[in-house]
Amino acid sequence: MTIDSHQHFWFYTPERDTWITDDMAVIQRDFLPADLEPVLKANGIDGCVAVQADQSEAETTLLVSLAGAYDFIKGVVGWVDLRAANLYDKLEAYSQYEEIKGFRHVAQAEPDDFLMRPDVIRGIRQLTAFDFTYDILIYPSQLKAALHLVRDLPDVKFVIDHLAKPYVKKGEITRWSNWMTEIAKQPNVHCKLSGLVTEADWHGWSKKDLFPYLDVAFEQFGPDRLMFGSDWPVCLVAADYTQVKTLIENYVEPWGEEVRAKVFGGNAVSFYNLV
To answer: Taking CA 63 as the corner, what is the angle to CA 191 and CA 136, rounded to the nearest 5 degrees?
Structure first.
């Protein structure tokens, strides 16, 4: 299967979705499977993984229902309160839904030490009991905490979303690269080739701006732990779906068809246990 490992659905609510600012007006509306399905077909994508955008179990329930209604949604990365006293019971209940593959918290909105906090680590550790994965959504300033987390929990399957959002627009790469190199040494960590266009100049990015960051990803994680993700519809503030896919396709082309098949599907299928 050709898989998009990272996209979102939502019913847009201005009061809740304050992160969608006025300069992101193009995504200030509802985005649902009926909007994405023709886009996937036009781009030769067989399926996708729907990832949480709101910190609520209600959204997790919504994503599960959408996955049940649309076959092309192959998995869900939902949200649950990782610090809840009854977390184990919640995870046990969620394990009854084969659509749910893992969980994510919007850690980028938390203090830099969030992923190092004992109650957070304790919660993420419980994911292993149900073979759930964890998506790490952070900024470069939080990579130190992420490194602490993945070292502390070697049995959890982690994936770094959006290459940890490097400061592409500023051209900063060295400190980010150093931290990513250390994180990549942990064999339980994958990385999504997603979200780069929105970290660059939305109206003037080019391959030469982004390829150096992809160089680091491939050099450190290798082709077996990287997966394509569109970050649709967020990507629309800087690029359409085809542009995002073509960016990664152009980069992996010299690596050959075997690597392309891994990055555009095989690795996501294995990581998220998609069927």
So the answer is: 25
Could you give the CA distance from residue 266 to residue 216 in angstroms, rounded to a whole number?
Answer: 21
Q: Are 159 and 185 in contact (CB under 8 A)?
A: no
pTM: 0.97
Domains of the chain and CATH, by start: 3-272 (3.20.20.140)
The CA distance from 165 to 159, in Å, is 13
pLDDT in tens, 132-161: 999 999 999 999 999 999 999 999 999 999
CA distance linking residue 128 with residue 267, whole number of Å: 19
| 258 touches 224 (CB < 8 A) | no
Question: What strand order describes the sheet that includes 100-105?
Answer: 3-7, 47-51, 73-78, 100-105, 133-136, 158-160, 189-193, 226-228
How does pLDDT run across 156-178, given as a tens digit for each residue?
A: 999 999 999 999 999 999 999 99
DSSP 163: G
Q: CA-CA distance, 123 to 138, in Å (whole number)? A: 18
Closest CA relative to residue 137, chosen from 204, 205, 229: 229
Letter for the amino acid at 214?
L
The number of residues in the chain equals: 275
Distance from C-alpha of 60 to C-alpha of 63, rounded to nearest angstrom: 5
Write the pLDDT tens digit of every residue in 91-102: 999 999 999 999
Alpha carbon distance 159, 128 (integer Å): 14
